[in-house]
Please model this.
Amino acid sequence: MHSQRDTLVLPKTYPPPYEEHNGTAEDAKDVDSPNEEIFVPPQIMQKIMALKTHKERVRMVEEYMRKKGEIVKAKEKALTCQKRARARTIKGAKNDVKDIQKAYWETVHNIMDAKDQSFRLFSRGYGFNTCIRACRLLVTARKDEARRFHETETGKIEAIYQNAFKRVDEEYNALLDLMLISDKQNARAEV
Model:
């Protein structure tokens, strides 16, 4: 037995018709950045839809998407560089700690080779594990410092590119306003 839902098949229009565009790009995932979705905000899309010719509408949407895509690519590149710098910092801290540990164990080995029995016993009781604990603390402190610096720099990068997005939106709003005024003046001149 079939349910009503199985028999009722509505025609699917994908992507939606141009006139019913909701301000999002169906193919936003085609951009190199998988994390950012590029879309045309509704207020800009309304102005684009008010343009006179279809060719101008398509050109403005494509140009807007291209500019936003360039900003997203630059942002992702900056964030990738920032992540690499953080990884290099942490790796450098680990290498520094390895050098410290190597020097420590060489010193311990020299102490163990000492001729004086009392000196060896004193060194053994003084604490082999203090260097290991200190090195772990150094690595942890450096990782925390690198993480805080990374978060600060990431915030700065995000702010810079948010300002770039706003600037593109403002430029397009102004450009579209001028184009709409020009279209209205041309329409009046024709009448």
Notes: Residues 11 and 129 are 72 Å apart (CA to CA). The radius of gyration is 32 Å. Residues 74-191 form one domain.
